[in-house]
Design brief:
InterPro entries: GIR2-like, RWD_dom, UBQ-conjugating_enzyme/RWD
Strand content: 5-15%
Number of strands: 4
Number of domains: 2
CATH superfamily of the largest domain: Ubiquitin Conjugating Enzyme
CATH architecture of the largest domain: Roll
Radius of gyration: 39 Å
Largest sheet: 4 strands, antiparallel
Shape: rod-shaped
Protein name: RWD domain-containing protein
Strand order of the largest sheet: 1-2-3-4
Organism: Zygosaccharomyces rouxii
């Protein structure tokens, strides 16, 4: 096999496929070196939410006996801010909506797409490319274009998986927030047991039983005259305290606690 001829031919083919994306660093055999900038087509419905463009720079060093030996590949993720994003961002801030409680209404898309970065994926991608060369038995044939296609596909699939994970997590957060808002209007359910416990605590706190006992003692064993009893408001309390006095106090307490 004429390695030099194989490498020259492949480089010419790549230059025709990637006329603007390919940069030849060294063309002379046996140390051919070039890099290609792969622009990713991210699989999301609304591309307008993106703040930046994602690309992968693929750096190729061809060994002397390539394609019998695999090329040396280095991968570098690149993020390029999109023109006009600042203008769209300002417009979005002006149109920010709020709910009835003054909370910002968070978009379902949130900022998930822009929180994904390929740096963390590069080591895994490097392993996947090495496995691709081995599993598909690419050695012995011109493989740079096949590897570029594989790199692009892997990156776009990974982005979609990460985006879906973040969307699911964001959906859970929204549901939790909705539950918290609903809880503000539900209050605490009252059961017979909880009411009796509250009633006993209430009577103890305001010493209602002690007060009633003292008043009844004055009525039956004290020396109050009928007029004093009338003026003190003790007459009839034995009958009225339970059905009326306590009910009024409980009612007032409940109003304050609501």
């Amino acid at each position: 096999m004429d390695y030099q001829e194989e490498q020259n031919q492949e480089l010419e083919v790549l230059e025709s496929i990637y006329p603007d994306e390919l940069e030849v660093i060294k063309r002379k055999y046996p140390d051919v070196h070039f890099r290609i900038l792969l622009k990713l087509e991210l699989p999301i419905e609304d591309l307008s939410i993106l703040k930046k463009e994602h690309s992968i720079e693929v750096d190729f060093h061809l060994p002397e006996n390539y394609p019998e030996e695999a090329p040396i590949i280095a991968l570098h993720p690149i993020e390029t801010p999109l023109a006009g994003y600042e203008e769209s961002k300002s417009k979005e801030e002006e149109e920010q909506a709020y709910d009835d409680h003054g909370n910002k209404i968070v978009s379902r898309l949130h900022d998930n797409a822009n929180s994904i970065h390929f740096d963390s994926y590069i080591p895994e991608l490097q392993v996947q490319i090495e496995e691709h060369i081995k599993d598909d038995m690419l050695l012995g044939m011109q493989m740079c274009f096949a590897l570029l296609t594989s790199i692009k596909d892997h990156c776009e699939s990974w982005f979609q998986q990460e985006f879906e994970k973040l969307e699911q997590e964001h959906e859970r957060e929204l549901q939790e927030r909705e539950k918290e808002e609903q809880q503000k209007f539900l209050g605490t359910a009252v059961t017979p047991k909880s009411f009796l416990e509250w009633r006993a605590k209430f009577r103890q706190e305001f010493k209602i039983d002690e007060r009633d006992f003292n008043r009844r003692s004055l009525m039956h064993h004290g020396r109050l005259t009928g007029r004093q009893i009338f003026e003190e408001g003790l007459a009839g309390e034995e009958e009225e305290d339970e059905p009326n006095g306590e009910v009024d106090q409980l009612g007032n307490k409940l109003k304050k606690s609501l």
